[in-house]
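Please go through the sequence line and token line underneath and see whether the fold suits the sequence. See right below:
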Amino acid sequence: MQSNLGTVERTPKPIASPARILVVEAHPGLRVVLAQRLRQDGHLTAGVSTARQAMEVCANEKPDLVVTTELLEDTTGLHLAQTIGCSVLVLTARTATEVTVGLLDAGADDVLCKPFGLEELAARCRALLRRGSSLKERVSVGPLHVHLLLRQVTLGSDPVDLSPREFALLCALLMPPGVIRSRQELLGMAWPSRSGGPRSVDTQVLTLRRKLEQAGLRGEGGIIQTVRQQGYRFSLHGLRQHVGEPEPQSAGTTTDI
């Protein structure tokens, strides 16, 4: 895999705004490599192995782009993306021209045949995102607004002063909100080239939590909760307490992502 997915040292064109990209790939090593490369372009990227997991991730917000292998254990990647309702780049091990034509005619926005290079994948994703007209410049969860293009955070109309690392960490915890993220996941999502270690994550989480609480975002157990032996999650329950909403009987949230 390393020889097929070797990197080429070059500087990609900067993106106008980070996008939310969901990578659906059963092979764990490949899934990690693909997600890490897309994060290098500044995108907010999550990786799952099945369509069921993908639907759980998308329950609260729809990604801008799905990068999925053609055949999943519980459905096809194309059917998954059509169900979610977003652009899709299909990865296939079948190299015949009629396969690519068939996938494109069936609704795929682009098709990439394995083996492929990471830089080609990144370039195709950038092209698909440029093609779309609905990239969001703001992520909102209740009164908390994260302005991706400006890299600013506001609570209601009041600004929240965060460092670049704290901003990246908050974005990672909101992809999507309520999902537990391990320290290693947060390192990969918010630390370039995985610089730092688990203790760095702990320190930054404490600082981010304190700043959000000082800004007025509080809740039972903290707005960023520590889940023993698992990691951290952004607390939707705490957010509902802040805005005075009743806790619903079933899990879910509404965002404008």
Observations:
- Confidence is low (pLDDT under 50) at residues 1-16, 240-257.
- The chain has two domains: 20-131, 138-243.
